[in-house]
Amino acid sequence: MILGFNESFIPAIIAGTKVHTIRAGQRWRAGAVAQFCARAHQPNHYEFWPPLPVLLVQEIELTATELRVDGRPLPPSELLTLAQADGFETTAGLLAFFADQPLPFRGQLVHWTDCRY
Hints:
The chain is an alpha+beta fold. It is 20% helix and 36% strand.
């Protein structure tokens, strides 16, 4: 399955500092093979990383006041850890990325490493 990324996230994925991604919907399952692509569904798309199996999928919900993973609200320190592991420097950066999404945002946290929350 194609896992498309904004090209600004590619260096963090390659460096191993972005170890998961947040996706709307419910299409990802553990065991699915993710193809890491930039410019997905465009004529000039390309794979920038070898395909990897999805190791874990966690449910994520973002409201105006909290972020929950598998129904558990994350405390501020763990929320910062999640934001940084998703390629953002700060929690505010993560929240700004999703600012145009209607709340509550419900989706999946797709893991290709052993990171867990």
